Amino acid sequence: xxxxxxxxxxSGTSMGVxxxxxxxxxxxxxxxxxxRMRPSVLLSYGGRNVVIDTTPDFxxxxxxxxxxxxxxxxxxxxxxDHIYGLDDIRPYNLKQRAAIxxxxxxxxxxxxxxxxxxxxxxxxxxxxxxxxxxxxxxxPFNLFGLEILPIPAMHGPGPVLGFRFGKVAYLTxxxxxxxxxxxxxxxxxxxxxxxxxxxxxxxxxxxxxxxxLVAELKPKHAWFTHICHDLGHDQTNAKLPENVRxxxxxxxxxxxx
Length: 257
Ligand SMILES: [Zn+2]
Ligand SMILES: [Zn+2]
Ligand SMILES: [Zn+2]
Description:
Number of strands: 14
Structural class: alpha/beta
Largest sheet: 7 strands, mixed
Order of helices and strands: EEEHEHHEHHEEEEEHEHEHEE
Bound molecules: zinc ion
Helix content: 10-25%
Strand order of the largest sheet: 6-5-4-3-2-1-14
């Protein structure tokens, strides 16, 4: 048994909360729980730090969580709100004098190579470059002693990966989840899953759909993430079942693995 600490680095949807140009009650809220950076989590265990996704807010998130070293990156999928902080890993490359392993599905690796063509170009340059070592996810894998179980789901028409480690799972950006993947999400202590808003969306699940999944899978605790500005922290929590809460930036969960 070892302990793992999961930190929610960002709990917001792709545009973040507050949303630019919006003056709704949640965007204007003084409650720090209503300030949501783009979605990502940090896993810290055995002296290692692993992030799931590198958002456009990655640098700010890494400073807030005081991430002094970075050992690996897992990607859920290739959307901009999940990948565009990759360039900001450079200080870790310099400090650790090493490339950082990146684990992703082949569809995501394909887009990373296009979106960050300069990282993968063979042309010599005097600029510092992010150093990455690509690993294609084909199934469960061991990362510094932790078994990582990929959970395939659908995000509108495209694939997305959630990840389970021990009795904790993280699944964001999905609209449907196959029965074979539901079977991998039994007996969870903590399930961090997305719940965008109340109104339906073709690419994301709503609060109602996320609650149905929670009722079916029965994790001990569920935490909603990838939240948009329709959902005020306190007002939404007041309507949720006791074991279900909105996640928030800086939320830390300590678990045994
Ligand atoms: Zn997203
Ligand atoms: Zn707003
Ligand atoms: Zn997405």
